Amino acid sequence: MNITILEGTIEEVVAISCQVPEFKDPYPAEEYHLRLKEKEHLVLIAKYEDEPAGFKVGYNKENDGSFYSWMGAVLPKFRKLGIAQALLEEQVQWARSKGYKSVRFKTRNHLKPMLIFGLKNGFDIIEVIPYPGVKDHRILLEKSLK
């Protein structure tokens, strides 16, 4: 298995996100620049045998000791190869090295694979944010880095 995790660019992230079927309206580069501006952040790109396969973007959202893992995805043809796991491990290692106390992410109730992935990796559900449709409820998860 030839997975490489590198720090990448917003342009690379946008190019990958436009190929993710779960993203109905992927964020444009401007939204990434706006969210990451003047905040400590990390943009990771995963390559599988030198082909872009996924990404993970996070930043210091709350200034409360947590690192917010905002966006991430693996392209369908590269799923089940350990890429999401490699991206998460790199992000957690980086956040720990920067002194963050936890990593948080939010998912939607209908994105069961992401919810299961978080739970399997030691994240706890810390909040459920109701939306009109139960499938659209947002679920906030957190993993302690202690």
Order of helices and strands: EHHEEEHEHEE
DSSP summary: helix tally: 4
Strand order of the biggest β-sheet: 1-2-3-4-5-7-6
Total strands: the figure is 7
Give the strand content: 25-35%
Label the structural class.
Answer: alpha+beta
Form type: globular
User: Per CATH, what is the topology of one domain?
Assistant: Aminopeptidase
Secondary structure: helix percent = 25-40%
The profile of the biggest β sheet is:
7 strands, mixed
Q: Specify Rg, calculated over alpha carbons.
A: 15 Å
Residue runs with pLDDT of under 50 for 5 or more positions: none
CATH architecture of one domain: 3-Layer(aba) Sandwich
End-to-end separation in angstroms reads 30 Å
Question: Which oligomeric state applies?
Answer: single chain
What's the CATH H-level homologous superfamily of one domain?
Gcn5-related N-acetyltransferase (GNAT)
Mean pLDDT value: 97
What is the CATH class name of one domain? Alpha Beta
